[in-house]
User: What shape does this take?
Amino acid sequence: MSDLSSVPSAAPTVSAAGLTLRYGGTAALDDVSVRLGEGVTGLLGPNGAGKTTLLRVLATAVPPDKGAFTVLGNDPGTSAGRQEVRRALGYLPQAPGFHPDFSAFEFVDYVAILKELTDRTARHREVRRVLDAVALSDVRSKRIKKLSGGMRQRVALAAALVGDPGFLVLDEPTVGLDPEQRMRFRELIARAGEGRTVLLSTHQTEDVAMLCHRVIVMVRGRVRFEGTPAELTARAAGRVWSSTERDPGAWAGWRTGTGSFRNVGEPPEGADMVEPTLEDGYLLTLDGESSEVAPA
Amino acid sequence: MSTALETPVRAAGPTHRPRPWAAVFALARFEARELRMNMSFLALAVLYMIWIVWQTTQRQSDFPILQNVDRGTQMMPVLIGLAVMLNVNRAVLRSRRRDTDRHFDVLVVEPWRRTIAHVLSAVPAALFIAVCVTVQFTWAALKPGAVGHGSPAELAVGPLTVLLFGVLGALFGRLFLSILAAPILLVLLLFAMTFAAPPSGNNWVSWLYPVVSETGSDAFPSDLLERPAAWHVLYLVGLALLVALLAVLASGGRSTVVKATVAASLALTLVGAVGQSGGTPAGSTPARERASVTPEKIRKCVEHGRSSYCAFPEWTGRTADWAAVVDRVQKLAGGRAGGERLTVEQRLDARYGLESDTLLPPSTEPGRVTVRTEWGGNRVPEFAVAVASVLVAGDEKAGTEVCDARVVTIMWLALGGEADPMSALSNVRVGDGVSGPALVLSPTEPFSMSAEQTRIVAELLKKPRYDVAGKVKAKWTELTSPETSMARVAELLNVSAEGASDGDACDE
Assistant: This one.
């Protein structure tokens, strides 16, 4: 795969400033400002970081308490603007629901209608196109309840892609997929990112490393990092080392397949430094903010 | 949203033009197809069509009265309506049950427009019912024996009921998030209809239900029905519109236009409800009084052969059928009866409302025979019994009081000319039996038939008609005399006289 960090980001197609949203006393989003351009932008963060909330705000599912954003030049703060944003939006929610008695074709067709694709012939052509794009042409007449989990996820992606949206919001699309399915999905998302803006929320740093030209890391409702995957990786330069025992001074450390320990943090003198990965940079960016990132 | 933002560019986007209402119609078509393909709807639709065919091809339906046929189209669509209601309700709740709301709520077609689509999805079902109702009515109207006039308002009730149930399904789906809510409400509604206020037609509450079918023993001339059918249609249209708009309101469509239309539809519903609040008159009205007490002022009389037939204006086309029965009976009679001039008078008692089962008093005037408004099926042999009674006893009153051996002659005259006399015998007797004692029905009062009389009549009906007819004509005077015993009648007609000595109905 090519170095995605070198892909230039065009002028932003999605621009948000000062987005704040509180649920009770908790700030799900706290003064979030982001700019998204063409291509795939990864959104990383531990559970509860506000990733899904940010996606839901940008997808116009919930309005922010404060702040503003535009999508493809449209302001969702107005009713007309919100409709325009929705016309340009493809959304794959986390753990998407399906109508199990619908066939794959019917479900995507239904979504296409809700996206105002009203000409029946053109709509059906478009539904066939997106089902073909996600390699579901052969099973398009099968009821969704008879499809595998991976196939269902592809149906959801097809539903997000139908109508050729300019802004694609994908909330953890690869969760629950086996490695082969995940690889297939990455190909689809990479293709979807050609010529449109894709915001991909994920727990998988591999997804980001392989797909994204930019990455945003959120922690506790705030943006802690925004840059290229290479820049995120570079944050770990000189802060990852190998040792025979877990280094007690390391912020995180775990035994690797070779039997040695990989440590992340502030290395001791003379440490055996190793090449950092995007995950190392991500872990260091979290800086102990998530219980999930402190392996025993 | 006042924060300054960078000027964004458009990377890509949908190429189609926004057409929100076209999307609503496309969604309505999609949902209508889902409804159409639903097994419960399909099964009921097929059953409904089978019922129409069965009902219209019944022997009784060879002589339809169109002002009854139109009302008869109303009840069965309720079943379809229930299926439509439950399916529309399920469709409205589908995205919530299947957790697709999170996705669909950020799509262009807003929930309130989706509600409109769900409401519209019931329209094809209503149109299907409209087509079926039209076919059912037209089929009946094209029958040679059809009389009367149908009402477009009565015919509209079935389709409107289906539409109303459909929009109720949409409203319930928007008000109650459980899929059980609609069936529970349905059961409550049916309970209320059955026990709390059965739709009897003459109280205003019953007219709040979609279907108010009123049937009694007699069909009324159309101008005596006095049902507020047009007001009821206005009420149903207003109510369907009101319920649909409330569903739209409940799903977030709160524009001024929607609110104004809610007010307008509420007004329409109220106007309809007030207009129909008088209901169907339960008792006498001037028109009903006149038709019941002085029908001769309304009826038109026509001559067929030697007899006269007086019918209410809508029934004049049926007098030939009555004349055919009179001729058939008279051909079997002997003496002067075979050539007697009869006056067949159509009568009804409309003074007790549409649902009354009034027994008409038999006429005391010689040679007058009553025929009611219903015809076909069992009504034909019943009329034949009345004709035979008058020929044998002189007048209807005397005929209904006959209990002696003349019953045998009356019954054979009435039924001997039938194509299937044994079936006819069973049809005119209460209990549908061809043995033992029973009451015999006629257009006025019934009369009794003893077990022995029944046995002799049954035996006679099994014999060749010409054989018995000859004996009847030859021994007419004796057979029609109240003095003649059962044993003698049996002997005259060459039938075994097992218990004939003690077997007339006067003893029972």
Notes: Chain A touches chain B through 60 residues (CB under 8 Å).
